[in-house]
Amino acid sequence: MNKFGFGIIILLFSCFSCSSDYTILDPVESISLTADSSVKVVGESIMFTVKTNDGTDITDQAKIFVNDSQIDENSIVGTEVGELTVKAEYLGVASEPLTIRFHDGSEINFVKRVLIEDYTGTWCGNCPRVNHAVELARAQTDKIVTVGIHRSSSNPADANYDPYNYDTSELEAILNMSGYPKALLNRMTRWQPLEQNNIPQVINLTQGENPKLGIAMDASVVGSTINLETKVKFSKDFSNLKLVVYVLENGLIYDQVNYTNFYTGPGTISNFLHDHVLKACLTPLLGENITNTTVGQTFTKTFSVPVPSNIANLNNIEFVAFVVDENNKTINVRKASSGDNQDFEEL
How many Cβ atoms are within 10 Å of 178's Cβ, its own excluded? Predict the structure, then answer.
């Protein structure tokens, strides 16, 4: 073989051996930098993602800079209140800068819900009108939490016997409102009769400024034990707050006296469905004091208690937690079912 032919072989060998060691990268015209949130509380983290113009995720290959200092990971934990400028670089191409901000927790708002405590009775002929009004209100908003407080006697021999009677006389003494039905909004405001004609009164309480405290519950019923963790988070300073936690039961069937034209009309409604029936209160009825009510704090109350003996069906248990101020007015409320592991409804 002449030298010329040998040289060609050497050249070809060199080309083939190099092809396994080097990858020719396509040119990148632009990259984008995004964050999973632009605003977080100090102590929380913000995660970044870098992608090419065609959507390829290059986060692991890109360099990320916060205030011109490169960070090792693709996330940052806020250590102080203020704004930070973030940018990314990849193969000499830079992203548009991104501004993120950490705050002290005071900028958080929470979903606003209204509590309806419906004082009712299976013997109470006018009480179905409130139940009907609740249905009308629920058709307009899902921000309603209802509690059916049944009154008045637990004695089967009495004319006003109710098998679901729950003694709330301590609370009713504060309300100073006689007779049934009566429906209270956020515990202390009377839903004006005739309730079905005053639906806006309920809807209006779900509007306007959002509350600065939120509620989340982790709930389970294991065997005959209720395990409930109730958390309250604050985005401003509060004082003199109390927590109330109810155990309710849904799906209860019992005849309902009816003087109204709703449902089947005047008479007795056979096998009427009673939902959200109050069966127990895990705190004092007027509430348990809450500590650590300053901005950024979370108060936690854990319950591990036997299922109340008056619960007919464990699968129909429901929990309601709400926070009241020094005037017993509800600031916010939330409900949960067994198996729920709730996050705070932050806005």
Answer: 7
| CA separation for the pair 87, 99 (Å, rounded) | 9
Q: Are residues 206 and 328 in the same domain?
A: yes
CATH at residue 78:
2.60.40.1080
Contact (CB, 8 A) for 213 and 297: no
Residue 190's CB is within 10 A of a number of other CB atoms, namely 13
**How many distinct structural domains can be found in the chain?**
2
Domain containing residue 95: 29-103
Q: What is the pLDDT along the chain (347 residues), one digit of tens a residue?
A: 444 444 444 444 444 444 455 555 567 888 989 999 888 888 889 999 999 978 899 999 999 999 999 999 999 999 998 999 999 999 999 999 999 989 888 889 999 999 999 999 999 999 999 999 999 999 999 999 999 999 999 999 999 999 999 999 999 999 999 999 999 999 999 999 999 999 999 999 999 999 999 999 999 999 999 999 999 999 999 999 999 999 999 999 999 999 999 999 999 999 999 999 999 999 999 999 999 999 989 999 999 999 999 999 999 999 999 999 999 999 999 999 999 999 999 98
* Residue that finishes a domain, picked among 49, 72, 103: 103
- Alpha-carbon torsion (181, 185, 187, 190), positive or negative: negative
